[in-house]
Design a protein that fits this description.
globular; 47% helix; 15% strand; 3-stranded antiparallel β-sheet; 12 strands; alpha+beta
Amino acid sequence: MKKLLNTLYVTTADTYLSLDGETVVVLKQDEVLGRIPLHNLEGIVAFGYTGASPALMGECAKRNISLCFLTPNGSFLARVTGRVYGNVTLRKEQYRISDNPESAGKIAKNFIIGKVFNARWVIERFIREHAYSVDVAKLKKVSAQLQNLIHLIRECTNTEQLRGYEGEAASAYFSVFDDMILQQKDAFSYNGRSRRPPLDLVNAVLSFIYTILANTAASALETVGLDPYVGFLHTDRPGRISLALDIMEELRPVMADRFVLSLINKRIINSGGFIIRENGSVEMTDETKKTILTQWQKRKQEKITHPFLEETVEWGLVPYVQSLLLARTIRNDLDAYPPFLWK
């Protein structure tokens, strides 16, 4: 259980939410895990299937407190709101910004700053932890290139130019991705992104994790009342969760890429867990998927200090915090969207 920015996140499994006067009570069987006054809250997000009392749901609706239910893995289930709720105003402002290239570009720029910053620090952290196993000069050169691109992105005023800088940064970053694979090199080699279908083992795992992260980002946006399909960087396309793809950009290097590297370098997965089809596409076995999902759940429970809030949070809550910050930016409660900058 964690309270962040007036939103209560209940991540403990098998908990039930009830109402005691004007207080929400978090119960696990007969044990009280916590009590939070409702007047301190603007949202409650519960991960699990146990649910909440009708009295609490009614009181949340009455007070315009968003009560959201997600699966333990973070997939969005439902939201309980009152007859009139500020999500309409929030989404109208989201759509207005999306249709205004200048306004959309300001937010998109910070998504990309976060992405390039985090990519650089994935490399820097890897150098620090494996200095005797990698070509330090080669990785440092790419790190310096990414640092220079951050400066250029900060000054960028054109969305197309921003996408160009993003592409240049991604090309530089992935040019050394194979250098950060230190184990099982015969099976796990990286020669560039291939998506539909993935054509090697590394791309198969990356695509799998990116899909999970995108769905998590979409669920996080739903909990704060934003439309995950209307983005600021990724253009609208039927069926594409554009805003979720936007917000996950800054999280890819630190939440997805580092995780995939650890799976390979720690030999948690191996080549026996993949199937290569006649057309060259690569698929994971069900057993490998289960292994990866188990490790992903463990990783989400690890704790870090959020760089903007300066509070301890679980990795799994980071997309939800960033969605909250984005919603506050759209409401003009924040001057600019603060990207997640990890070191």
